[in-house]
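Following up on my earlier thread - several people asked me to post the actual chain instead of describing it. Fair enough. Here it is, all 249 residues.
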Amino acid sequence: MLKEERQHKILTEVALHNRILLTDIAEAFGVSIDTVRRDVKELDAEHKLRKVHGGAVSLGFTSNTTRNSNIYALDEKRKIARKALGILNDGAVIFIDGGTTCLEMACLIPLDIELTCFTLSIPVAMELLNKPNVKVIFIGGEIAREAQIAIGANAIHNLSGIRVDYGFIGTGYVDALHGLTEFDWDIVQVKKAVIKAAKKTVLLSISEKLNSQHRYKTCDINAINTMITELEPDNNLLNLFRNHDIRLL
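Reply from S.P.:
Thanks for posting it. Predicted structure:
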């Protein structure tokens, strides 16, 4: 694989999943970790992604101020966000996860709707503060530097004490058979706690993440009440999910 092709694939992966591990890319491409590390270093120097310890993150994932120009598949994510808003009603108590799609949902919440919103995400909390009728409650804990969300035992403990009507979450990977998965163990533990805290869990995911999986499991697909993609619910790409007790929007 030529360097140009390899770097293009790296940018595609980091754009789709927000974060990547050097070890995963090296294994997928059949090259050494040093080769991938050099590629990531070059892409970082060209301001196409940001190199972090053991991997890389997308620019849209790390900077709230540049998200409109750097977020991957922004139109699709906004379509998902608008669908998610159709679930809300005045007086609802909700949770909004971190990640770019959930951030778009927070951005598009109408100014006149009254909500109580819990979140672990610093960018989501900051966006919600612009909504005069939304009561914002931040779930504190250790801050994951790249994801800009609270993680760890304190965050999980705080989540155990709440019960929300809807928990809107994102995921790195989703598969009809293997459920929701991530490569970050700490993120998985927090998402498990969010699902337990929600009467109904709503997954927001672009269709490119369908039929993908990673090493740490968040939950079975049936733990999700509703899955929202940018696709129409009858799209053939969703056929495998129709065999499960899950609402498709």
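The longest helix spans residues 3-17. That should answer part of your original question.
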